[in-house]
Specification:
This protein has 294 residues and is α+β, with helices and mostly antiparallel strands. Helix content is 27%, strand content 24%.
Length: 294
């Protein structure tokens, strides 16, 4: 494949460059492969990002190693030279305003991936018509293993968290994050605001810590995480974001965040690759969407 070409995606012509650059050198996955991936999984990925402000994480020279992951940075503002067909909304912060893009379609994903974006992060709330905020429509618990813990410990905490969520009348579904841990999602019906959702998540995380202090911490301070799984409740804050399901991750192995079935969670659980995530999307295997859509 030529290192530079033009592709038409959903009627939009996008110039693509450096297609033969290895974005994931440990696997040989190239920029062309990443562009093909985001276009192929757009029906799945944009279901989770549509109408939400997107923060992007970019790797301009590709992903490094576990010890040296390569230079990356978060990007919030929509680029000045972005095409007019990318939808965006302005959000006023305390001392500044950011204009965030909204990831509605395959063309938008491809345009950002061309610019070095691998990860797409969104909050748990959507925009209303006119740019106002809807109440959060989902709650997330990020199960993040500290040093000395891993996915096996996250699986045990996920099962404990599922029982607590069930007791609250909130069915849940897991997503292997494509990084180190598991994200656990539950649908919300719009009856509580972001502060209420954040308080609920904090209460659940604290209960898990009280019940299993040997395994769980709800304390966000890094020194408390060793040998434990952090149940990060803070991503329900209205200003925080979580990597979207089916987003690539900027980590060795060319992995993605992928919704999983509960019966997949066992001590041999592994993160899934872009190829595996694409295959699941194309066959419509998405238990989280089935839960949230219901």
């Amino acid at each position: 494949m030529s290192a530079t070409t033009t592709r038409t995606v959903e009627g939009h012509r996008i110039r693509l460059t450096s297609l033969d650059r290895e974005v994931y050198p440990d696997t040989g996955v190239t920029k062309a492969d990443v562009l093909d991936y985001v276009e192929a999984v757009a029906p799945c990925l944009t279901w989770y990002t549509r109408d939400r402000p997107a923060t992007r994480k970019r790797w301009m020279k590709g992903v490094g190693t576990a010890e040296d992951p390569g230079d990356s940075f978060f990007h919030k503002n929509l680029e000045d030279d972005a095409p007019s067909w990318i939808r965006s909304y302005a959000i006023r912060h305390e001392d500044h305003t950011n204009r965030y893009p909204v990831l509605d379609d395959a063309a938008t994903l491809v345009w950002f991936a061309q610019r070095g974006t691998l990860e797409f992060h969104v909050p748990q709330w959507r925009f209303r018509t006119g740019g106002r905020h809807e109440p959060p429509d989902r709650l997330v618990l990020d199960l993040d293993p500290g040093e000395g813990a891993g996915l096996a410990e996250c699986v045990r905490v996920a099962r404990l968290a599922r029982d607590l969520l069930d007791a609250e009348g909130l069915p849940s579904a897991p997503v292997t994050s494509g990084s180190k841990g598991i994200h656990l999602y539950a649908p919300l019906n719009g009856s509580i605001d972001v502060d209420g959702a954040n308080d609920l998540a904090h209460r659940l995380a604290s209960r898990l810590e009280d019940d299993r202090a040997d395994l769980v911490t709800a304390n966000l301070r890094r020194e408390r995480r060793r040998g434990h799984v952090l149940v990060d409740w803070s991503q329900n804050n209205g200003a925080k974001t979580t990597v979207a399901p089916f987003s690539p991750r900027g980590r060795p192995g060319a992995t993605a965040a992928v919704p999983r079935h509960w019966d997949e969670l066992d001590d041999s659980l592994e993160q899934l690759t872009l190829a595996e995530a694409r295959e699941r999307c194309e066959r419509g295997d998405d238990p989280l969407r089935a839960l949230l859509d219901g």
